[in-house]
Amino acid sequence: MSSSFEIIWIVLSLLVALMAWRTGAHQVRRGRQADAQVTAINQTLGKLVSVTESSPVNVIRATAAKILDLERQLKDATTSLEDVETVQAGIQGLFWLPLSVGQRADLNTRLLALGSHCVHIQHHENTDCTRLARDLLEVFKSAGWSHPSPLETGSWNTSGIRGLRVSPLWHPMSGASGGQPSLAR
Description:
Blueprint: H1 2-48, H2 56-92, H3 101-114, E1 119-123, H4 127-142, E2 164-168, E3 170-172, E4 181-183
Antiparallel strand pairs: 1-2, 3-4
C-alpha cells in the first residue's frame, strides 16, 4: 500500500508543480503584456507631444509644455475674438437692424392705442433700410393703420432720404379755420 500511496503522492506533487509552473508562466506573460502596453502608451504620448525619448518624465514635461502653449493660443484667440466683436459692434451701429418679435409687439400695442391712422413710409434703397421699412409696414398694418401708397424708394421724393422716414398723412380739419393739422382717420 505504501508504494501506491507514494505513486499517488508523486503524481499529485508533479501535478501541483505543473500547475504552479503554468500559473507563474501566465503571470510572467501578463507582466510582459502590461510592460508592452505601457511602452506603447509612452511611445504614443511621446509622439503626441513630440518627445524623442519617451520616458514618463519626458512625456509629462512635454505635455505640460503643450498645455501651456495651448493656453497661450487660447488667450491669443480670445483677444482676437474680442477685437473682432469690437469692430462688429461698430459696423452694426451703421445699419438698421430688423425688428425683433418683442419690438414688433411693443410697437403694435402703442399703435393700437393711438387708433387707426394713415402712414407713409419712405426709405433709402439700402438693404437694411428696405428690410426695416417692410417690418414697420407690417406692424402698422397689423395695428389697423392704412398705407395708401407702396413703400417708396428710388423716387424724387426719396432723393434726400439717407435712411428711413415714417410720416403720418395730414389733412386740414373740415370747418376749422386756420387748417390745423390732424391725423387722418
